[in-house]
Write a structure and sequence with these properties.
93% helix, 99 residues, single chain, 2 helices, mainly alpha
Length: 99
């Protein structure tokens, strides 16, 4: 699971870094202030949409991981219960044989 966390963190960091780089590039571009502000506004909207998409993906991935963890926990619980029953049965069997 930590591999997915690292990948998600990298993706978020990459997007944020790209947005910052883009903003700096736009600010240093030779164009009038009004055009720069318009361009920044457009890019900010796109970045906001992309961030929302990434956040949604992270939520979906977390929900899937939670669901899988619940399934695994349930299987472990069932397996442990079965093992306990078998152990108790063997114990009783050995106990009967020793009498």
């Amino acid at each position: 699971m930590s591999d997915k966390d690292t990948g998600t963190g990298f993706a978020i960091g990459f997007i944020v870094g790209a947005a910052i780089g883009l903003a700096i590039g736009i600010l240093y571009a030779p164009q009038p202030g009004k055009e720069t502000r318009e361009l920044l506004k457009e890019k900010a909207e796109k970045a906001k949409e992309k961030a929302a998409e990434v956040a949604e993906k992270v939520k979906e991935t977390a929900a899937e991981a939670r669901e899988k963890a619940t399934e695994v926990a349930e299987k472990v619980k069932e397996t442990a219960a079965e093992a306990r029953k078998r152990a108790e049965a063997k114990f009783e069997e050995v106990k009967e044989k020793t009498k």
